[in-house]
TrEMBL record:
Gene3D superfamilies: 3.40.50.2300, Winged helix-like DNA-binding domain superfamily/Winged helix DNA-binding domain (1.10.10.10). Residues 1-12 have a biased composition (Polar residues). Residues 1-23 are annotated as: Disordered. Keywords: DNA-binding, Phosphoprotein. The modification 4-aspartylphosphate is found at residue 80. It comes from Acidipropionibacterium jensenii. One of its GO terms (molecular function) is DNA binding. This is DNA-binding response regulator. The keyword Phosphoprotein applies. InterPro entries: CheY-like_superfamily, EvgA-like, NreC/VraR/RcsB-like_REC, Sig_transdc_resp-reg_C-effctor, Sig_transdc_resp-reg_receiver, Tscrpt_reg_LuxR_C, WH-like_DNA-bd_sf. SMART domains: REC.
Length: 240
């Protein structure tokens, strides 16, 4: 396990293009984690990001087990899809999202759309190719740190394949979607489900991200209601 940064904020590179989104919703230095079994690549990612955003800490791990054992609470996790420990990609995503509650940005050269689709269904916030340029990498990290999904145009097209119609939603996400589609406000949903309002907001953002990945975006409440009806999470208007 290697951890670098030690709370020091990197000075933005003067030649870098400004990001379209802030590094984090509170504009604070980010705590980042990266899981990959190629140490040189991980160090390169750290150097690139440190010239483009403020980083409070950057922790590297070769496996998800190692990441979870580190005790870090990251704002974003960069995850290589194919690790050499035999772990399944979508299960790695599920573990990180469930145990750390952090958005996962898949960072890989994975060429199997079904694998990407399964990871997105498991809760990953997005996918970025390892050959992406430095500014795109920084923008992707900054975007998912705010709770928004990220997909490159190429992968957005891949996962919008008509064979990928209905995204997989976790049980609690399904419940939140049903209540939201019924017209309840986030605060009311939170009380009913026994969670904080921010948690409901996170679920709804994640649900929208999954529908974007499925090629069926739902940016408004009405759109999300339509998706919920289409996928059987709630009933549509009844005839008079």
């Amino acid at each position: 396990m290697a951890s670098v940064g030690n709370g020091r904020s990197a000075t933005p590179h003067t030649d870098a293009e400004p990001l379209s989104k802030p590094a984090a919703s509170g504009d604070h230095p980010l705590v980042l984690a990266a899981v990959d079994d190629v140490p040189v690549l991980l160090e390169g990612v750290r150097v690139v990001l440190a010239t483009r955003m403020a980083i409070a800490d950057y922790t590297c791990a070769a496996t998800v087990d190692e990441l979870l054992a580190s005790g870090i609470q990251p704002d974003v996790v960069l995850l290589d899809i194919r690790l050499n420990d035999g772990s399944l990609p979508h299960q790695n995503v599920t573990r990180i999202v469930k145990e750390l509650g952090a958005p996962v940005l898949m960072f890989s050269q994975e060429a199997q759309p079904s694998v990407i689709q399964a990871c997105l269904a498991a809760g990953a916030a997005g996918m970025l190719e390892k050959n992406a340029d430095a500014d795109t990498l920084a923008e992707a990290v900054a975007t998912v740190a705010t709770g928004e999904p990220w997909l490159s145009p190429e992968w957005a097209q891949v996962v919008s394949d008509p064979t990928w119609i209905m995204p997989h939603l976790a049980e609690r996400e399904q419940e939140a979607l049903r209540l939201f589609a019924a017209g309840l406000k986030a605060a009311t949903i939170a009380r009913r489900m026994g969670v904080q309002g921010d948690t409901v907001g996170t679920w709804l953002k994640r649900i929208r991200g999954k529908y974007i990945a499925a090629g069926r975006p739902a940016p408004t409440r009405t759109d999300l209601y339509i998706r919920a009806v289409e996928d059987g999470y709630c009933e549509g208007p009844q005839p008079l």
